[in-house]
Amino acid sequence: MQNDIKFFYDSKDVCLVRENGVIFKIDTENPALTVEIANKILMHEDLSDYDKDLVNEVSNFLNSNFNSCRSDMDNLFYSNDPRFKNSLSIEEFLSRQEDKVFLLNNLSPEEVKIHFEKKPTNSVGIIDIDFALIVTPYFSNDSTCLACLVERWIEANPKIYKYQIFHENNVHDSSPDFLYQLAITKANLNLLEQSEKAYIISKKDFTIQETLILSREGCNICFSDSIKRMADFTIGDRAYSKQGNGQRSNSYYDAYEVFRKMVNPLGPVVELEEYGSKDRLNIAVFQSAMSYNALQNAFPIHGGKGPDYHQARLSAIGEAMERYNSRHFGNEYIIRASYKELKEQGKNVLNPDSLCLDKSYPYPYSKEKKIDWVESIDLFTFEKILVPANAVLFIYSPESTDLQIIPQDTTGLASGLNIEEAILQGILEVIERDAYAIYYRNQLTAKTLLIQNIQNAKLMNLISDLNDNHVKLHLKYLETDTPVYVVHCVSEDMTGNFPIFTHGAGAALNIETAIMRAITEAVQLRTSQIEINDNKEYFSNDTEYEAYFEWGNGNLTYVGSLLSSETDPTIEASKLKDLSSRNFKKDIMNIVEHLNNNEYKVLVSDLSRKDNPISTVRVIIPGFQSTDDTLNRLTNRMTSLPQKLGLKVRDTPFDKPFFA
């Protein structure tokens, strides 16, 4: 490898040195030998035939006087590049316990992952890969491994690695020499400090990004027991306080200290930006991007909402982590069998028919069909029960699509800093979407919420800001048979500008929290509508986005009965008492017991992962109505709940798509 420095013979007692275009004159007793040794040192060539003391003298002179020479010469070194003549063999490199540096180039990502037969402990690496040089963190027995680092790199760059060939074949050129020198300097610093940080040096614009590297779920090197079981959890007594539009056992600042570490160039969350400024309301809305392997299906972009900048930012990170943890990593404990086989074996197993299956689904279910099952906990009995993996993991990506039985959705996925927080939020979300689906598909007339006497200053300030910006709120109380308040909000832009209508829903044990959630979700969705409308050429022919445009353009037939009218019944929000206990377990069990009395189970699968501290769950309440895109999944609750509440049921469910 060439350096930015080179020695030249001049005369019997002088040699010349050129460093970065500058010429230096050096006095020496033997200039010819000095030039020969110095250039071999710079080229990392074999020096075993030269006097050791003389080699050390020249080496010390170089390191003391020339910046370009302060490289890997102070450390043991290995490279798969044959240009490095003084490189240790791979066997010797792995066997040495001293601190050391390695450099790998001309390898594909898959080849880098398996280059060493074991973790190269006590080392820092430089990986020349595609459009960057990666300087690794210090590898120790307790650190992440090289395979995890490369997998994080792949998932952070899905546009590059969306084809299998880019995973398995080398497709890049080696870096210029000055970048190698920069990388070696960074590597030596990481080695000296035993740093947990990695650096990404761009070959294109020479920028340097600093990042942390988390071990990745399912890695057999980093985790001794990598099998993920989803029913090995308990619910503890944990107090909480109301914060913004939710409840937390930690302060916002404590929570953010944990969540922010998930966001970095090679992290589970690779991007986080505030984009509320796209809307003239200029209310804080965040967007996050989850890392993912482009060879697998994924929905990487997520939004965050809240009454203020801080809560919205936290929400966006949490949403991305929720989807990250719920992925199908491949290390999940899964049983493949038919429902009939499991029942014959005496297993406690959920009947998939209770999940309201779509009879027109292209991969139909039958009791004899072998499918994948994962464990869950029945929160009333705390017994383990097997449930279809298709209903838990998101995205569920089996090797054969025939293993699927239902369309995938995110209802009941929730995350938090502890499992109790996640479970409560997951239960509330299932109840919220059940209520919205039943009221919307039946076009039920819900009570209009009167909010004049609410004492919550943050909530009333938000409503006041919207009114000042000519945005009218239609707040509806969606009464159900659960001890949970569900609120629906339609926002109407009275200026007539797009989007004229948007909406949101919220569920909570406190009416003010439910209202806040519904309003902030509407604000977030409004921003998404604006962004989609600004790029309508990409979305206008996609039926998935039909509701975004129809609501935004003011099509009242899509909004239906969710608007308030003077003849609608009303209810004062201030008279709806707070049902929360300020204890997660008490709140959870209160809802679970109430649902059990109505013959509904609450099933929870723990999707929390070992590679991050964010708790994530999937909550399933079999028999509750889903907000499915096909409109074909109708539960008994679609008619039984309105009848229970004394409301009129439509003969034919409303045929407009859900807006979510």
Ordered list of secondary-structure elements with their pairings:
Blueprint (H helix, E strand, L loop, with lengths): L4 E7 L2 E6 L2 E6 L3 H12 L9 H14 L10 E4 L10 H6 L4 E5 L4 H5 L9 E7 L2 E4 L10 H11 L7 H5 L8 H17 L3 E6 L5 E5 L28 E3 L2 E3 L3 H8 L9 E6 L11 E5 L10 E4 L4 H17 L9 E4 H6 L25 E9 L5 E5 L24 E4 L2 H24 L4 E4 L6 H12 L2 E7 L7 E9 L7 E8 L2 H24 L11 H7 L3 H4 L10 E3 L11 H14 L5 E4 L8 E6 L16 H9 L15
Parallel strand pairs: 4-5, 5-6, 19-23
Antiparallel strand pairs: 1-2, 2-3, 6-7, 7-8, 8-9, 10-11, 12-13, 13-14, 15-16, 16-17, 16-24, 18-25, 19-20, 20-21, 21-22, 24-25
Helix pairs in contact: 1-2, 8-9, 11-16, 11-17
Report on the structure:
The protein has 660 residues and is an alpha+beta fold. Among the domains are: 5-70, no CATH class; 76-212, no CATH class; 241-317, no CATH class. 30% of the residues lie in helices and 20% in strands. The protein has a six-stranded mixed sheet, covered by helices on one side.
Give me some keywords for this one.
20% strand; alpha+beta; 660 residues; six-stranded mixed β-sheet; 30% helix
N-to-C terminal Cα separation, in Å? 56 Å
The fraction of residues assigned to DSSP E strands is 15-25%
Q: Per the principal axes of the C-alpha atoms, what is the gross shape?
A: elongated
Helicity range of the residues?
A: 25-40%
Rg measurement, Å: 31 Å
Q: Provide mean pLDDT, rounded.
A: 93
Distinct helical segment count = 17
Regions with pLDDT < 50 over 5+ consecutive residues? Answer: 69-73
Kindly report the spatial arrangement of strands forming the biggest sheet.
4-5-6-7-8-9
| Structural class label | alpha+beta
How is the biggest beta sheet arranged? 6 strands, mixed
Number of strands: 25
